[in-house]
Amino acid sequence: MSNGHAGRNVVIGILALQGAFAEHQAMLQKISSCKCKIVITLVRTVDDLAKCDALVIPGGESTTIALLARLAGLLEPLRDFLKRKPVWGTCAGAILLAQSVENTKKGGQELLGGMSIAIARNGWGSQVESFEVPLEVEGLREPERPFTGIFIRAPVVLSLDPSPSDPPLQVIARLSPHCLPQAVAQDLSDEDPTDPRDPRTVVALRQGLHLLTTFHPELTKDNRFHDYFVHQCVLPTLD
Amino acid sequence: MSTASGTVTPNASTPPILHGVGSAALPSVAPSRSKEPRDGNTSLGTFGVKSGLAQMLKGGVIMDVINAEQARIAEEAGACAVMALERVPADIRADGGVARMSDPAMIKKIVHAVTIPVMAKVRIGHFVEAQILQAVGVDYIDESEVLTPADEQHHINKHAFKVPFVCGCRNLGEALRRISEGAAFIRTKGEAGTGNVVEAVRHERAVMSDIRKASAMNEEELYAFAKDIGAPFHLLKETARLKRLPVVNFAAGGIATPADAALMMQLGCDGVFVGSGIFKSGDPAKRARAIVQAVTHYNNPKILADISCDLGEAMVGLTIDKDIKGGRMASRGW
Fold it and tell me: Where is the active site (chain B) (predicted)?
């Protein structure tokens, strides 16, 4: 292991316009690295963003977060940030990272893009359909121990469409096909609902520098996903 | 249904968890689309997903709306959720009479008009209104003192539902009693329909002050304090450890301006409800958007100054005294 980052700070920002940013902050503050000091900061303005080496976009309401980002002049700076630095989107954050989205508010809504997927908001329906389920996740510390996925009015990945010039998509967690929302299953009844490669079962994936989860690791007491983001997505970019 | 949530919720693992679908006392009133269980391993309606939705609403504004058009204005203005009701509290005060749950047809229209979560109110203790709203598929139920109470002794047993509940409080004891009954989200009562923030400030200060007192206490003192404020000991102990309520805490009742909203945030709230303050004002869309920005930038007076300009007329406020029309709503419930 090189020790080239000793003494350097790595600044991880959390977009703090609306939603569960404090939960991400509490989780990330527990992560340490022998390579460098990790500093966590909340991002509400363009100046805040400029200090960051990486960013987490939390869960919340994607329409609210997008509007507040536009009013704060953050949309273009965020799109530019996505081209250069690692970003992790959870739930609403995952929606903002998608290339296209279904079930938008009337008149559509603004996205940041950055990952070559299509996503549907509120894929399971209203809050009474929100659920918890144990997930097997590739690449986490202690991989034999399942990770509790908390899905709250969660989005569903509809398709993976990387163009040849995009970095490859790497799926790191899937749901059992039996957990899929019935409405989606009926809409696409011509497809085999038990196909293990069905994109709709994808709940966590990586592309290039970025990480996306449709569920909420920040609502658990298990920091393995935050550890994964820091060690697999953020720290390697500092080399 | 398993109760796996006990080990994963960060801040509310202590209340006992019951599930609407599995409990014997109440009929299962889940919406039709969830008739078939998806998988033996999934758990619907756990306390983790109930309090988790409230966590996703933090830093946001929940707006009262009375029809689909208002709901769309609220969504465009950046509301993180809407509260569907037939009359805003200011009109309930003015009209008098018994205020009840709204017509489910009107709530469904609002559910179809917007993509953000939709909440609706039931009367205190009226668990059948709550069963109906769960069947309609609302995302959150407010067991609210703004409607005329159906039961002066008992609140709803909220553990028995899959849909989560928010409840009002005036102090820490009341907040913890509601959480003990299954509320996954707490708000101040304030004094709804007045456009006067003084009661919301009183209630939030009372909650925060008692939390600060409790966090300095040893175990013996906590037992005595739990008795004094009528709170379950285990929830008081958890609150003292966390130095905050174990669920999300919003301000409500009398918030009418961006400055009111930022005041409540600086006093320690996680977000705000705005009832009559938006659609009883001169320019609802503009005021709604300004209040949304105020909740995000509550600690930045320069931004607050910018967004507070030219908002048109605020709602007409009421002085809160013993003769107030419609009475003191905050005194309903215990």
Answer: 121 (schiff-base intermediate with d-ribose 5-phosphate)
